[in-house]
Amino acid sequence: MESFDIEQAIVYAKLADLAFSSKETIQKDIRRYGFEYFKEISNEKTDVGLYIAEGHRSILICFKGSRSEKNFFSDVNLLFTEYPQVRRILFKPKVHSGFLSAYESIKNDVYSAIDELRRITGKILPTIEIVGYSLGAAIGGLLSFDMIQDRKETVHFTGFAVPRFGNRWFVRRYNSIVKNSWVIQNDKDIVGHLPPKALGYRHVNKIVLIDGSNRLIFSPNAFEKLGSTLESSIKLVELESLNEHLLSTYVSRLEAIKQLKKS
Predict the structure, then answer these.
(1) 58 near 134, Cβ under 8 Å?
(2) Which domain holds residue 103?
């Protein structure tokens, strides 16, 4: 597991925010982060969207978060589905049905785009950086898992406002193979507490919690998680949950922490 790099996390948050922009804006702005725009991919049925870019040493895959009624239906389809890539008789890895359907709607297109990029450039870039936000983070996590398990790729995953998307058996398998994985959560954002653990959902590693004092808490303990649950519940009651869920909030809080570290 690589050490957490707050400056890189801020860049990833801005790249994730860029996914909501037009193709022209992505093409123009992506260069400041050391990437060249390659392709946008979307699925009309599920409204999943992402863009792929080429860097000097890596390929970037960046997923959008929820943005439409179709995404909402993916979010609320809370039933578990046995994960098709991992077959077991007992202790079956299962994932969120809505997230899995959304992921499978673009999986083959993503694989084809990566192969096409490598064919065009003639380069096998050694690392694939997968970034996602909210629904896009859950999809990015599933893609990271498959990229490593099926294609033996070197993958770095960073997600913001990541919902839980698997049961304990899937999470154990994920954590055993996706070593470079960061789940960045604002303690006041309710999305990081959904779907509920009571339904059998668990978070993948490695959680980085931004607390109310603008501190980073790595792998928070039960007491710290409880505090985060209370904070996010208060914001939900105060109708401020949407603001806490915004990527701009994540960027501003991470930048505040960066400044505190410098002072």
Answers:
(1) no
(2) 6-262
